[in-house]
Design a protein that fits this description.
Layout lengths: L23 E6 L3 H10 L4 H8 L6 E5 L2 E12 L4 E12 L2 E6 L8 H7 L5 H4 L2 H36 L3 H33 L7 H67 L14 H22 L6
Parallel strand pairs: 1-5
Antiparallel strand pairs: 2-3, 3-4, 4-5
Helix pairs in contact: 1-2, 5-6, 5-7, 6-7, 7-8
């Protein structure tokens, strides 16, 4: 089966493929209202779908109308510089012998492996119909979720080591940032389960029976991704608790040292207070060795107390 790769600069150039007997994939980079409306009108795509395509930030979903299957989901990217999860909404439409995908950002996507497969003879995507191409696009997006979550997992592990070693206010800020990224991840991943399930429940003739097993495989993958996202969210909660525990432990150690120091200085305070009273007759008051005797007692008693503390394990030098 021959394949043709074309980069079209005019919307009208993709109109002839509507009645093509061969499978056609039209990937639209950038959401320009006039272009989207023109393509959708020519391919018989309902105006409600057009509104969904142009509305950014929607919840992933799937729908069927006018003999077409339409779905919206998010492609995820991990920004190494900012350690943040970035989303890009993509809309995919499956029709008879054609698949149309609409992307926000023309500079990046996760479909390059599919483009390389299309260039190789005898690959499944070359041999099967538009429904398999539709599956392949969704599968690549879902598989990329694991790539993003793996990088988030590395960030969580490094943060855990930092918290165990030396928790500080910067660690708390990192926890809050990662928790926000987990919310973004969860919002993008969780609804895709129902999206794929909706495709499996669809009785549309566009999805052949032999392709359903591949969508079931994607369904299993998205369940795993959802479970992993839940685990990461629990890990973030545990990291927050670990941070508070370590901060409290560190505070307790500081208070323990201060309490020991206070106890060691207490005898000197008592002795100094006694000899500082304004009475005429105080033992050793006029003795030439009185000062040295009192200072010696002030030093000996704390040393004895310190030895007792160390022996009982209350204090370690």
């Amino acid at each position: 089966m021959n394949i043709q790769l074309k980069e079209l600069n005019r919307v009208a150039d993709c109109f002839p493929y509507v009645d093509s007997p061969k499978v056609t994939w039209i990937n639209v980079d950038g959401l320009r209202k006039n272009d989207v409306e023109a393509i959708c009108e020519h391919y018989g795509i309902h105006y409600l779908f057009v509104e969904d395509i142009l509305s950014i930030g929607q919840r992933p979903k799937t729908d069927e109308m006018n003999g077409l299957i339409f779905c919206i989901l998010n492609m995820l990217y991990f920004n190494e510089k900012d350690s943040s999860v970035e989303t890009e909404q993509i809309s995919i439409i499956l029709g008879k012998n054609f698949v149309i995908s609409f992307q926000e950002d023309a500079s990046r996507d996760v479909f390059d492996p599919l483009r390389e497969k299309l260039k190789v003879n005898n690959t499944k995507v070359r041999q099967q119909g538009a429904d398999f191409l539709f599956y392949s696009l969704i599968d690549l997006i879902v598989d990329n979720y694991f790539v993003v979550m793996e990088k988030l997992g590395d960030k969580i592990e490094n943060l855990e080591e930092d918290i165990v070693r030396s928790p500080n206010t910067r660690s708390l800020a990192k926890i809050n940032i990662l928790r926000k990224e987990m919310i973004v991840l969860k919002r993008s991943v969780a609804p895709v389960r129902e999206l794929v399930n909706g495709i499996l429940r669809s009785e549309s003739d566009l999805v052949e029976e032999r392709t359903e097993k591949y969508f079931k495989d994607v369904y299993d993958h998205i369940i795993q991704a959802n479970d992993l996202a839940e685990n990461y969210r629990d890990m973030m909660m545990n990291l927050h608790d670990l941070y508070l525990s370590n901060v409290n432990l560190k505070m307790n150690e500081v208070m323990k040292v201060m309490a020991v120091v206070t106890c060691l200085l207490a005898p000197a305070t008592v002795i100094g207070g006694i000899f500082g009273m304004n009475f005429d007759r105080i033992p050793l008051l006029h003795n030439q060795w009185g000062f040295f005797i009192s200072v010696t007692i002030m030093l000996i008693i704390p040393l004895i107390m310190l030895r007792i503390f160390i022996k009982r394990g209350w204090f370690k030098l």
